[in-house]
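Researcher: Re-running this chain for the archive, since the previous output was lost when a drive failed. Same request as before.
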Amino acid sequence: MTLCPIPDLLAAARPGGLGAFNVIALEHAEAIVAAAESTNRPAVLQISENTVHYHGSLKPLARACLQLAADSRALLAVHLDHATSHELISEAMKLGITSVMYDGSALDYVANVEATAAITAQCHEHGVHVEAELGAIGGKDGAHTPGVRTDPDEAVAFVSATGVDALAVAVGSSHAMHTRDAHLDTDLIARLSAKLPVPLVLHGSSGVPDSGLQAAIRHGMAKINIATRLNIALTQSIRSTLADRPELSDPRRYLGPGRDGVRREVEHCLEVLALR
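Model: Regenerated structure tokens:
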């Protein structure tokens, strides 16, 4: 199976939402691919700029994700998430990554528009899908800071000025939540969906209960980004394994169960996002 463009994955996911899952280690990627195969659902493997910094470079993990996706029978794409570096985006495109999220949230609104438009033009020359985010004018902590909301009219103007292919919007979620009690503004999601000509993306989805994710999709959310829930599943499985077998030293003996924990979590998420 060849890698799929994001628009094709979004179409394949309907009437549900497209699950996009962050990869930190090879075990994450293997688990996501296995879950997509077992559920017969499309999925996106995402590598964040923070993860690139952790590993010291993009190439090794990106090549692993691209190869796993290419070898799989599932419908998959590889995406660079929350990139702020033009150089990193250029490297991602050269490696064959076909979707990037440019994060200009540290900039003021005008600078964000200018930078996002320039990145989008560069990416479109190479057929690369571009996601951006918008919370509020001047909101320097990003679209998913608690309390921030995306204004529909601003969003229309932003998409028109930048030409982006998808927009992450602020509707009540927040990154890195360990509790699942975030309350999404489904009325705002519906208004954004009605006004915008591009798919809506929900970041910080780990903090949203399953029913909230399904409600978001029914009101117009298209792509659902999940990271923290996978890390919790990985860590809990490893802790449990080492607690039961404290003599273990071979990392395969505890990373394997950790990978299985991530696979089960992704399978559950994909079933939820399918609206089943």
